[in-house]
Design a protein that fits this description.
By secondary structure, this protein is mostly helical. The chain has one domain (58-404). 70% of the residues lie in helices and 3% in strands. It has helices at residues 10-16, 28-40, 45-75, 82-103, 106-111, 113-127, 153-174, 181-185, 188-201, 205-221, 226-245, 248-255, 269-281, 306-339, 343-367, 385-404, 406-413, 418-452, and strands at 133-136, 139-144, 150-151. Strands 1-2-3 form a three-stranded antiparallel β-sheet. Strand 1 and strand 2 (139-144) form a beta hairpin. The radius of gyration is 30 Å and the shape is globular. The N and C termini lie far apart (69 Å). The relative contact order is 0.13.
């Protein structure tokens, strides 16, 4: 029957009615964003990012060390796989340290803080003893441990400062002493400056910068006031300027910022050829093992400038992949530090994240010509067992902290084999509901028997 208003049947009016506008939920971009956000918010996201990201960086680093070090090894009359075998051995030992650290409780990590600090200080003092310390590239920061193996104690000093500083600040926070500036600074800053002094005696300013970044990260996490934070930063910057101006080598490195030519005396040779390697890589690189710069043109191709060889052989895609892995690792560390209620876990996770992120930024910035060449390796990626071992132990710390989150612990418990989970559920059901069910059945049976009577 036609409508009294329009004279058309209701079906025709419904057919000509315009479609309802799409809501934000129907937007595919918004749906994708919602799914990604849910994935980021899952309890095990940080755990998988730390474990998977560190594993991928280490494996890719082994591949690039093998590719970048072959020519250097042959020039030294060594087998082509010499540096790769040493790095692989360090990676195996580091994996054992990572596994051990990931299974340790926080109490055991805190118990290791003071022995590790004392051991690092003792080894750094031994470095300066004539006949024990070994100079490498002008830096007296190594100890020979027999054969071709050498140890750099300052790398372990980073881990020692993180653990000891986190334990110190956590104990002071439990006693509510961090509201006073003297308790926030003493003895954290004096001990950190003592480590910096021992490192600078050997001339290794790159490691000293990383140690300074760890100190500032701990102070920031402890809630240092702006004036206090700025004062410590001003003192450190003043000392850094003095150390740079009194060293011709450091001044020459600073002068190579943005250089496009080797300069007089080839003072900027390494910085310029690092840029050449990155520029010749293109989008997908020249191919694994096909680098030209590693044939004696680029010094330290398998250590400090391995990122440049990665850009030449794997191109922009390879370098962006490495950057994405480090960004994911840094995000996961920040998430672990931000979601915990344990002050030690917060300080230690924040210190480790500051250490790895700052070292990666300084190394990659130097290769890109944005920062002075500091002589620090790319974490988990460059050649060097002394740097790899404490870094993998620190990654194990982050994994242990990510596992200790209550939501992550519950999620991991649910990921046991299905048969075992079902059997545990049945066992729990029998234990919890068995007596109640038996009593109910007994009451029903007694009621039925009384009714029959």
């Amino acid at each position: 029957m036609p409508s009294s208003r329009t004279g058309r049947p209701p079906a025709q009016r419904a057919a000509k009615r315009p479609a309802a506008p799409r809501t934000p939920r129907d937007n595919p971009v918004r749906r994708l964003y919602t799914r990604a956000r849910r994935a980021w918010d899952r309890p095990l996201t940080a755990y998988y990012l730390i474990l998977g990201g560190s594993l991928l960086i280490t494996v890719l680093g082994l591949v690039m060390v093998y590719s970048a070090s072959q020519i250097t090894a042959l020039q030294l009359s060594l087998p082509g796989s010499y540096f790769f075998r040493k790095q692989f051995l360090a990676a195996v030992l580091g994996s054992l340290l990572l596994l051990a650290a990931s299974r340790m409780p926080s109490k055991l990590h805190r118990a290791l803080a003071y022995p590790m600090l004392l051991g690092s200080v003792f080894l750094m003092i031994l470095v300066q003893v004539p006949g024990i310390g070994v100079a490498v590239n002008g830096n007296q920061n190594w100890i020979s441990v027999g054969g071709p193996f050498q140890l750099q104690p300052s790398e372990f000093g980073k881990l020692a400062l993180v653990l000891w500083g986190a334990d110190l600040l956590a104990r002071k926070q439990d006693k509510r002493l961090l509201t006073q500036w003297k308790h926030m600074l003493v003895p954290l800053v004096p001990v950190a400056f003592m480590l910096l002094g021992l490192i600078m005696l050997g001339g290794d300013m790159g490691t000293a910068i990383i140690l300074t970044a760890i100190l500032f990260g701990l102070l920031w996490l402890a809630g240092a006031p702006t004036r206090l934070f700025g004062g410590v930063l001003a003192v450190a910057a003043t000392i850094g300027v003095i150390l740079i101006k009194t060293s011709p080598n450091r001044m020459a490195r600073l002068a190579c910022l943005g250089a496009t030519e080797p300069g007089p005396g080839d003072t900027c040779w390494q910085a310029v050829h690092g840029i050449y390697a990155l520029a010749s890589g293109g989008l997908f690189g020249s191919g694994l093992g096909a680098s030209v710069e590693k044939w004696g043109q680029l010094p330290e191709a398998h250590t400090d400038f391995i990122f440049a060889i990665t850009g030449e052989e794997l191109g922009l895609a390879g370098t962006l992949s490495v950057l994405a892995l480090f960004a994911a690792l840094g995000y996961a560390g920040i998430r672990v530090a931000g979601r915990t209620e344990d002050p030690f876990v917060r300080y230690a996770a924040g210190g480790v994240t500051t250490w790895i992120t700052a070292q990666a930024v300084i190394n990659i910035g130097a290769v890109l010509g944005l920062l002075p060449i500091a002589g620090v390796p790319l974490p988990l990626f460059s050649y060097g067992g002394s740097a790899l071992l404490p870094t993998m132990f620190a990654i194990g710390l982050l994994i242990a902290f990510a596992r200790e989150d209550p939501a992550a612990r519950a999620a991991l418990a649910m990921r046991q084999p299905r048969f075992g989970r079902k059997r545990a559920a049945v066992r729990g059901s029998v234990a919890d509901r068995g007596p109640r069910k038996w009593n109910t059945m007994r009451r029903r049976a007694s009621a039925r028997s009384s009714g029959e009577r």
